[in-house]
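Researcher: Go.
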Amino acid sequence: MSRLVAVLRSRWVRAGFVLVAVSAAVVAVVQQRAEIADAVTQVPPAAVGAALVVSVAYVVCTMLSWRAVLADLGSRLPVTQAFGLFGVSQLGKYVPGGVWNIVAAGELGADLAIPRRRSMSAMAVAVLVSVVSGLALGLPALAVADTHALDLWWLWLVAPLCVAALVPPVLNRLLAAAMRLARREPLEHPLTTRGTLVATAWALLGWVVVGAQVWLLAAALGVPATPSSFLLAVGAYALAWVVGFLVVVTPAGLGARELVLGALMAPVLGGGGGGVVVLVLMSRIVQTAGDLVVAGVGALGARRARTLQAPAPPGERSAR
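Model: Structure:
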């Protein structure tokens, strides 16, 4: 285990991980470059720009949800540090496997003196919060959607289990069991109801924000900008994300998310499948761009902070 930790902490391994993650995100887009190029011509640049801004805001909301969990577990990070750690670690979700963002959070958190078990637990809990809140907003959309193309009845069985797992007494027991299986020391601070509710509130706000991204793109394609279409966009994206997350064999839910989002939004788009294809492709490319923007800004901020904290050379110290 100690050798594995030493390898993971290697500068070259970390640089390689970031390179692979960024490459995977870019490949996910390049593979559909022809369809994307066609989609871009059908959506006004102003709508694309607004959707990108909203996508960045969504990532910030998810970061604040994770930060609330981490603080509840005993590590309160300034927003700038949290931004850097979370932004870079989220690139791991573009690597197939579904766990690399959690592993990355553990390693990057170690640089900030956060125990790995705490960083990884916080990221895992934040993901569970996203799943539960996404189901809470997405299942009503599934119930009222005029579509028979989705066979997602099993989500109604998964939802109660996820909600039960998020109740702090249950969740603390699950985390303790995970620490025992991993032969790690138990977490120093248990999760509280207040901390879980704060994280859930940020996650719910995040779904509303990213739903606005879908709504803006759909409105640019002719969908009436009404409260009902907005609520549908929020629920459709939330449910699509949950399904995409559960399909861990694809990077960032690629394919599964588009299938669900397209099926739920198809009735309001009308006009055949062209509008659906444009919507799901533009939503994917804009959200990927938002992830890359947040990761880039976070990495630059973290690098600048390390530069400012670095001790001055002996000659400079004596001159002062």
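Model: Residues 1-9, 310-320 have pLDDT under 50 and may be disordered.
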